[in-house]
Amino acid sequence: MKILFRICLVLALLVLHKTAEGQEKLLTGMVVDSISGSALEGAEVRVLGSAISVITDVHGHFRIPWDHRAPISILATHLGFVPVDLLLPPGDVKLGETLLLRMAPAVIELDPFNFVRPPPEVVFQRDDLHVGAYFANDDGLWVLVYAKPQLWHSEGNAGEQVLRGARLYLLDTLFNERFSCPLPSDARGLYHDHNQRAIVEGMTDAWVAEVRSMADGEEGIELGRIDRTTLHEAVLPWTDSIPSYLLGSNISPMYPAFDHIAYDPGTASSRLICSVEDTRLMDLFRSQYKYMSGHDKVVAMDLEQELGVDREVIAGYMTAFYNDPYFDVPYAPLFVVNDTLCVFDHYRERIRRFAPDLTALDEITMTYQKERTWKTRLLQDAVDGRIYAQFARGVHTWLREVNPGTGGLGRVITLTYPFPEEVQVHDGHAYYVYRPYGSLQHRTLYREALR
Fold first, then answer.
1. Cα dihedral 332, 237, 402, 374 in deg (nearest 10)
2. Which uninterrupted H or E stretch holds 130?
3. Cα 220 from Cα 234, distance rounded (Å)
4. Distance from C-alpha of 426 to C-alpha of 135, rounded to nearest angstrom
5. What secondary structure letter does DSSP report for 39?
6. 377 Cβ partners below 8 Å, 6+ apart?
7. pLDDT tens-digit readout, 207-225
8. Helices (DSSP H) in 205-351: which residue ranges?
9. Which phi and psi angles does 32 have, rounded to 5°?
10. What is the pLDDT of residue 80?
11. Cβ(62)–Cβ(30) under 8 Å?
12. Measuring CA to CA, how many Å separate 450 from each of 293, 400, 414, 424?
């Protein structure tokens, strides 16, 4: 029994010795963020001069072999942090203690690079046809092209350009041709109604273009005829729509004021949204009465009694003040932005906002119209509703987004080519027509990204 007891005692001592020896050969540590104090998972801890390397666990802990008899050099690294290089002499970390490594976040500096803006993308180009106008809707991109222009010189239409040999193309989202069709006559321009349907104006008629199934069962472009009087008096005045109302105006090229109107087709009634007036031009318009002859003043007074219109307003029409070089058609468009009706009244220097029920909400101060480089044009992206102001100076043209809630302007987006024509915005891109001066290239449609 004594022999057996001695054997067991020796074995127990050996086990305790091995356990203590195993503990002495491990270094336990923890890696943390020096700022937040949080544990860093995935940090690599290497023993320099050896192949030993471990990765910290989810709690930032690690263990590496070390007999605590000789110095040891360790290196801790982690993406986004400054490496920690540490030399531990023997006995620096006692048995059972945890070594704490604090890693400071690193500032990562990228090599400098030059941002190269991609060149404008060609949307439509032909060697035998010019791009005259274009319009995008749910069907695709409508492009009105022509073989050659002709200036219309009849009285009353002096200087008007007529597009001869006109043809209408419909492109898909990749700008591949879906359909095309010749027009019954020469064309004057491409427009759209409040339903965003493409409309081509000809010499005596106009045509609503839609994609329809043809007699052979295939789809194609169908042209629905309307007369030009209907186009200008009953279609084009209505520019947009909201539930229950068509939105439009009674703007006239001969009068320096107009009304924005909402029309309810259900009740065949109209409501006034707001009135716009160029007060400076209106004063000049009405002042023409003072310079009329006595006979003409009597005529104006008689018309006042008959029509119930102020004699000074009648005088402005009688003297054809709208032909004066100082006269400009007032510009104060209405855009629907997120169900809010926004009237950009440049004469009051305010964005006048209205609710869908046509009640006035507020007025926002705006200043971009004071810049001499503003081209008296606002463009709306029909996809996201954003509004852009167009500017130009010299050969350069640029766009800036207008915030209808603050009146502020976004960054300057300069278009690549000089003197772009027919600028429009659609789905985050600027579209325009351009032809290099003096080249044989036909008028080409381009686009480039705005964001």
1. -60
2. strand 130-137
3. 27
4. 9
5. B
6. 389, 390, 423
7. 999 999 887 778 999 999 9
8. 228-230, 279-287, 294-307, 311-318
9. -135, 160
10. 86
11. yes
12. 56, 10, 9, 12
